User: Fold this.
Amino acid sequence: MSIKTQSRFWSRPITTALTVAVVITACCGVMGCQDGPMYAMKSVNPYYRWHEWQSDEAFGTTEHERRQQLAQLAENIGGYDGAVQTKWLSALNHVMDTDESTEMRRLAVMAAGNVDGQSALQILEKGMDDDSVKVRMQACRALGNHRTDENVLLLASALGSETSTDVKHAAMRALQDQPSPKAVEALRLALSDRDPSTQNLAIVSLRGATGKDYGDDPEIWIAALDGQPVEERPARFADRLRELF
Assistant:
């Protein structure tokens, strides 16, 4: 074999290997070498994300990624079918039991608040007992998303037992959209609070829960709710504008 022929013979496999290496490097550069060409599709697939969570790799590898992905779940979980929601609620329940991050627990409660049913309610109950004020406030807001007797009872209980004014006020705002006798009864008790801001918020929430307006005096509201003859305040132009917008 001539030197020229030998050169061509040995150069072919070397050239081929170099070509393959260049292609692989280019593909990794485009895809980020994370998970192959299906990475983008997997990242939006709720089934994949749940199984990824099960392997302790869910919600990213950094705190920022975890918060971002759980916030996205909170936004989208209401559109998933029942089977997928059930799996995610199991994962969220695990977050409430084990995660030390206050923000992760708050987002877990937010996500559960966008799902109806007993499994979601169990997560919200844990949120109401959480050590963090932020988590408890989020649980109040989440409970206000659904008009059920269980939700009203949890919110009403918070008004009587909660030590944080911020959480108490969050519960009162949530009761505003609950046209229930239990909600009205809890807000009526709040009218006797010594804190003027609590009294004012109770009146605002009672307007929403009862559809009535007896002015801005807590004593007049108490009389009206106790069945005494009290005239409603005529609707003001500014109030009608607020209702429209």
In short: Residues 165-231 form one domain.
